[in-house]
Specification:
This protein is of the alpha/beta class and 723 residues long. The chain is built from 19 helices and 31 strands. The structure holds beta-D-glucopyranose. The site of beta-D-glucopyranose has 8 residues, from loops.
Length: 723
């Protein structure tokens, strides 16, 4: 945890000068307001409904807004209601109940692929402002789980496999949201890294493995973004449920990291009232729990048991302090008009920065605009772009281009398993770029038909999609519905074929060698079609870099078979992570195995020359510097990455810094990136802290995690760092 915040907390937020906080600090206000609350009022602040008519006993009060959650306010003391909505990608659709629509950001992986913290901030600010203008004051955003398991159905909501990249991007998104006076969460705390068995699986992991991976991502995100709330997850961690975990909540989060905000449960994740004693501060979506634990049960305990009474006060204090700090007490969201054009431009910018060109061996890309006959095939690219499913689903203001039910017997399952297309047609955007060409479209349903169209064309662009969603993992990494066969047929018919992937994460590419070029466009959001066309035609550089490894085969994964996949639904199981803290590229580096595409990888349309890497130790810590020159003929984006490659204890690979540099032809810029010492340290359980061994540390510059330059070494003294 950053020293500044720890100091602020240690001395109370009241220590912040009045000029920065107004005449009364958030902490003072929270304490004095707490003193005026009755027991019933306190109880009313620590539990709430899912704000939709779901469940027999639920009435949604008229002042609530249809959304994920509602906690009534206390007007006599100026405490507004908490009006909560999902989620990280925009104001959500709420099981199809909201019809006003909102701007859909590209998936979290797309935004992480930009490696652009500023874009993450702007995206957060945009969705925070939309939430505010729809009357919400809490966004259940800030997904910071690691893409440890590439089959995880929710990876598209998260920010990849690396703690530094995830923590940085999540922290910036949270900052952007909260600067609009909308509280953001960081979620789902913690180790909620797959959907299969998410309510029942027990993650067994040792302290060092957790601290150096998933927890580190949260630690960095929280330090940077200071979210008002942290949402605990459904799964168990080393025994207790995460929302009932003394070690995780009271221990790691509140004691070690000095987290001053509140912990809200995931919806239906509270196992008992005793969770309050273990650090849970608020029960959310209470109709999904087996009973409302933080209602009457907690009230009775608070009347008779001093420990519960004190805890209830702390729970309320934390909620009030966060509300005041973020400013929802003074600037609660107000219904107001939204400029969807301007917001769409923000989403498009993120998509353009995050699209990754994976192969381009014959320089088919960028498209010259000279092809006379262009075939566009598949992916429903005539109507729009696919998006991911679940609570994070955003529907566009004018309604979706299409929704395709994928099966589900209950209302919730049917909603969770629906693939929605956002109305930003790649075909229309490509047409706008190639007015002189003759465009033909084939749905790609029949590969033979698509192949015959490909044969008659100068250029083929084939779109393939893979839907992923909350509550369900993908059984493997293939493209569904015969799309591999479609690509095989089309690329065999015409090698001048660009394959555009719209996927929720990594996929296998058995046809890779046949393709003219391959582009990963992720779920590209509200203006995805335009963004794809602009990258294909080179209006902007191809500048995305993978935030997760693309495996060559599932046999390379730490768990070749998805844990829990063969069990009955809701049958409990233990989940051990063979890779420990070696998530993603670190696993491949430790085993010396080659993935299909490594973490950090992506092609630009120009070329760069890199000067020697220098890592210097100064009074303010370690800094990595390198000069980068654009040696090509067009403007482009370099993303030099710095990796630790060995420490005194031996070889290890960890991303420790990067910069996104926009360079004109011939231009040179020097990147300078500070290196956080915690990234060099190992967690020592016996010392309950981080330790850096004294000795030689080696660093390399990389264009990806497996293309590393020569190493430079620095000798550092041994050091202990607090938890
Ligand atoms: C999801 C959360 C979401 C919540 C409210 C849960 O099922 O795991 O991410 O914020 O529902 O919709």
């Amino acid at each position: 945890m950053g020293r500044v915040w720890a100091v602020v907390f240690a001395f109370g937020i009241a220590a912040i000068p009045a000029s920065a906080q107004g005449p009364v600090s958030a902490d003072e206000w929270a304490h004095s307001t707490l003193a005026k609350l009755t027991l019933d009022e306190k109880i009313s602040l620590v539990h709430g409904i899912m704000a939709i008519p779901l469940g027999p006993k639920v009435t949604v009060p008229p002042e609530a807004i249809l959304g994920a959650g509602y906690i009534p306010g206390i007007p006599r003391l100026g405490i507004p209601a908490l009006k909560e909505t999902d989620a990280s990608l925009g104001v959500a659709y709420v099981m199809g109940l909201r019809h006003d629509g909102a701007t859909a950001l590209p998936s979290g992986l797309a935004s992480a692929a930009s490696w652009d913290p500023q874009a993450a901030y702007q995206a957060g600010a945009m969705i925070g402002q939309e939430a505010w203008r729809k009357g919400f004051n809490v966004l259940l955003a800030g997904g910071a789980n690691l893409a440890r398991e590439p089959r995880n159905g929710r990876n598209f909501e998260y920010l990849g496999e690396d703690p530094l990249l995830t923590g940085t991007m999540a922290g910036e998104a949270i900052r952007g949201i909260q600067d609009q006076h909308v509280i953001s969460t960081a979620k789902h705390f913690a180790l909620n890294d797959q959907e299969t068995g998410r309510h029942v699986l027990n993650v067994t992991i040792d302290d060092a493995a957790a601290r150096e991976s998933d927890l580190l991502a949260f630690e960095l995100a929280i330090e940077r973004g200071r979210p008002g709330a942290v949402m605990c997850s459904y799964n168990r961690v080393n025994g207790p449920y995460a929302c009932d975990s003394e070690p995780l909540l009271n221990g790691v989060l509140k004691s070690d990291w000095h987290y001053p905000g509140w912990v809200m449960s995931d919806w239906g994740a509270v196992p008992s009232v005793a969770a309050a004693l273990h650090g849970l501060d608020q029960e959310s979506g209470e109709q999904l729990d087996t009973e409302v634990f933080f209602g009457n049960s907690l009230r009775q305990l608070a009347q008779t048991d001093a420990t519960y009474r004190a805890r209830l006060d702390d729970m309320v204090l934390r909620i009030l302090r966060a509300m005041r700090t973020v400013g929802v007490t003074d600037h609660s969201g107000q219904p107001a008009a939204i400029d969807y054009d301007a917001d769409g431009a923000v989403a498009q910018h993120v998509a353009e920065e995050g699209i990754v060109v994976l192969t381009n061996p014959r320089n088919v890309l960028p498209l010259s605009g000279k092809a006379r006959r262009i075939a566009i095939i598949g992916g429903h690219s005539d109507i729009g772009v696919i998006s991911g499913g679940g609570s994070s689903q955003v529907a566009p203001p004018g309604g979706p281009a299409a929704t395709i039910p994928l099966g589900g017997l209950s209302q919730i399952d049917a909603f969770l398993h629906t693939s929605m297309y956002l109305p930003s047609s790649p075909v229309a955007a490509i047409r706008a770029h190639s007015a002189q060409a003759q465009l033909s479209y084939s749905s790609g349903e029949y590969p033979s038909e698509a192949a015959s169209l490909a044969r008659q064309s100068d250029l083929v662009i084939v779109f393939v999609t893979k839907w992923m969603g909350e509550g369900v993992d993908t059984p493997d990494l293939t493209l569904p519905a015969g799309q591999d066969d479609l690509i095989r047929a089309v690329t065999a018919a015409n090698p001048n074929t660009v394959v555009v992937l719209e996927t929720g994460g990594a996929v296998l590419m058995p046809w890779l060698e046949q393709a003219g070029a391959v582009v990963e466009a992720w779920y590209p959001g509200a203006r995805g079609g335009q963004a794809i066309a602009r990258v294909l035609f080179g209006d902007v550089d191809a500048s995305g870099r993978l935030p997760m490894t693309f495996p060559a085969a599932t046999s390379q994964l730490p768990n070749p078979v998805l844990p829990g996949a063969n069990l009955e639904a809701e049958q409990a199981f233990d989940m051990t992570y063979p890779e420990g803290s070696n998530v993603g590229y670190r696993w491949y580096a430790a085993r010396g195995s080659k993935p299909l595409f490594p973490f950090g990888y992506g092609l630009s349309y120009t070329q760069f020359a890199f000067g020697p890497l220098a890592v210097n130790s100064g009074p303010n810590g370690l800094t990595a510097t390198v000069a980068v020159t654009n040696t090509g003929a067009r403007e482009g984006v370099a993303i030099p990455q710095v990796y630790l490659t060995s420490a005194p204890e031996g070889a290890r690979e960890r991303l420790v810094g990067w910069r996104r540099l926009v360079l004109k032809p011939g231009e040179t810029k020097t990147m300078s990136a500070p290196i956080e010492l915690k990234l060099l340290a190992d967690w020592q359980k016996s010392e309950h802290g981080w330790r850096m061994a004294g000795g030689t540390y080696a660093f390399s510059l990389g264009e990806s995690a497996d293309r590393l330059g020569p190493s430079v070494t620095v000798n550092l003294g041994g050091k202990r760092l607090p938890p």
